[in-house]
Fold each of these.
Amino acid sequence: MINGKRVTVVMPAYNAEKTLKKTYDEVPHDIVDDIILTDDASTDRTAEVSRELNIKTFVHTTNKGYGGNQKTCYQEALRIGSDIVIMLHPDYQYTPKLITAMASMIAYGVFDTVIASRILGNQALEGGMPLYKYISNRFLTTAENYLIQQKLSEYHTGYRAFSAEVLENIPMLENSDDFVFDNEMLLQTMYFGYRVGEVSCPAKYFDEASSISFRRSVTYGIGVMQTAVKYFMSKRGCKRHSIFNPDGKKLDPRTPA
């Protein structure tokens, strides 16, 4: 706990057998109350390794996609009464050592959501981020900042912390089950007036670290721009999109995923 707030780490996992233990070992267990892993129908021993580490493990019998996996993670985190939820990839691309800092910023009421930015500090390329991904990250971030009138350093990190209030009140179940889920969720957080902070985070790129193909990166980029346009139109009353509808489908902490 931090400042009396229950802290839970959720790990949306797919074929993370080789990196899960290394990630788990660096989690600050002195302040993390629970760890939840949802295995999205992996073809390796991810679920077995997770259980060996005594992680609360849920297994999808069919692959629900990156966004669908996170929906299960957040549902289970709310169901056990978490106050702060940190989403950490179990592929060891992001260091778990930032969990304490990210959770503290929420626990003490500074922010409602905190993202770990690979761009702050100019370490992305040094960490091995492919040049085309760096360029597309900068382009998409610039375009989004312009459309939604924010000043984030990036929108595309997979390392995030949320207060339970955010998770309960944004219409998350209206979001995609694919990779654009992350972007939709972050824009929902800002659309509904929650405060978003950033911390600088080194990221590592190596063979076992998860990464999407160039083709899927293009699909993701198109989805990101579509989401930003939906935000722009909804804010100006031109058209209310379901992901920005306050009456849209939300998680219910009373219901198991």
Amino acid sequence: MKEQLAALDQAQGKLIDLGIEFGPRLLAALLIMVAGYYAGRWAGNMLDKLLTRLGLDITARQLLVRITKGLIMALFLVMALQNLGVDLLPLIAGLGVAGAGVALAMQGVLSNLAAGLTIVFTRPFRVNEYISIAGEEGQVESITLFNTTLSHLDLSKVVIPNRKIAGEILHNYGDIRQVSLVVGVAYNTDLNLALAAVDEVLRENTRVLKDPAPFVQITTLADSSVNISVRPWVKVPDYPDAIGELNKSLLETFRHRGISIPFPQREVRLLEKS
């Protein structure tokens, strides 16, 4: 019993000695980490305001702010470990070996990361622009380091890994799209009257942009009709509604003005054998 009490007293004494020796260091390390957190947040906010004034894209701005916060926290972590008396050289060597193994196991993730950095800094497209790439198209909703999210016209979302985007042919529509319609009129139609009717429909539709100017031309002399190409510009969100509205208005206007939209016709001749 006395031996157990003696051992307990000895252990208690060692704990007190360790507390006296390392307690102030541990407290100082915690204070350093708290200071690092607030310093990183302050520096990130200041950098964000500066980059906003410079007009930098939101995706690149957020990335730079996060990197700045991470670097400051890493610096304060090193200071805290040094204050505790930790030998950093073996730790850094161990992290290097572990990092090499992780890199081999996460090649796909790292390729997405590299492609994400390329997209962020080269900026082939931005948030809210309409793009077509990798067999998909939609409005850019978000760009992260690992993937890009598109919002589709059917209200679904398309998530594309960044490695599928980098190096691919990209069609960037920006924030406007060109509607492509074709309307046919009979060969005996007054074409000036038909073109004037098309121009009137485009002027009255509030979704159609005045600049760039709509393209309206006779493009094809088809088998049974003269085809007029109608290609106005609209905002990306107005694209699906504009198609329906313009088709409806063109049909009603042509009917009202007596402009005939012919059906496909074929002339068949029967020859009698003599």
Amino acid sequence: MSPETTEEARLARLVRAHDRWRGRSTFNLLPSENAVSPTARRYLSSDLAGRYTLPLHETFDGEAIDNSYAGTRYTDEIEALGNAAAARLFHGRYATTRPLSGHIAALSALAPLLPRGSKILAIPPGQGGYDGYAPGFIPAMLGCEVRPLPATGPGGRVDGEAAVDEIRRERPNVVVLGQSFFLFPYPLKAIAEAAHSIDALVLYDASHVLGLIAGGEFQDPLREGADVLFGSTHKSFPGPQGGLLITDREDLFDQIDPALVWRVFDNAHWNRIAALAQTLLEMERVGAEYARTIVANSRALARSVHDGGLPAVAEEEGFTCSHQILLDRAAVRARHSIGVGALARRWERQRLLTDLVGRLGTAEVSRLGLVPSDMPRLADLLIRAGPGRANVAAEVLAWRRQYPKLRFA
């Protein structure tokens, strides 16, 4: 057997093992992941996976051309269908499904709209903000200054009055709202009113809460004053890994859309766009019930783990309004003499997957079909497997196998 054949066989075994492990043998509580529907997955492996399209409407060597490639009649229609579905679902007039991730969507919005030397106001990572907006990352790439938008309390909540004061004091060119630790909606109307009064833009990074917004359960950014909505399509939104961007403002879209190709990407991966279009259409059908279930599951799981001895933050505010629960890291360590990262490693050995910074997410287990009445049982497994060090892997596997199909698809 040749080395190539041996390695190909090994690769095949690894992929099959991953599919069994992650797809059928664990409960995934990572807030940054979700399950893609069978139809969307088929589109990811379609012939579109190797194809291009590049509409130009230009003259090349004396000839008028509308696309650099032949054979794109279906590709372009698929993209147009996805864009229209995104605009409908998120209550905007203009949308693009081309960004390859939420991070690329952020670049796609900020780069064309902000001249060098502009000032960005964003929630800092220390208060749960996305690291990409920290000084050394996207702002540095764009030659912009970034200043902190205050978020307080253990849940990193933005206070409307404090945010308005900071906007008036700092006078930024743009306010970026979005967090990696994202429990509660923003006082968006007050923030937008203050920003627009100084001709600043409001950009809403919905990467974590996009699925909740799609279901009408979190908030409605474009109708509440945001100028641009963008985000990842694979967290609470149950699509393929990627991004999208929506706005209600033609003037902004006319700056953003032409600046995408050859600046932040070239090939937008049209198999992904087809899978994303399918997920957008699915969410038009089931998004409201799906989002309600996620939030109800989050609150029930938070209450159950908290009462069972794993402290969660923001009890006085109902713990969460999103797909995320945030463990109180200091309280967990004080009570159990273990950090949340070490807990996550224990849980992983028992087929319970979380991240290593103390977040639990309910999007994927909601998509499998778990409901609030299941959350005490799930919390019991987490408590016994984590602080209790019990071996619950067989219990988890037996329970997980009761959900062979996705509920919301």
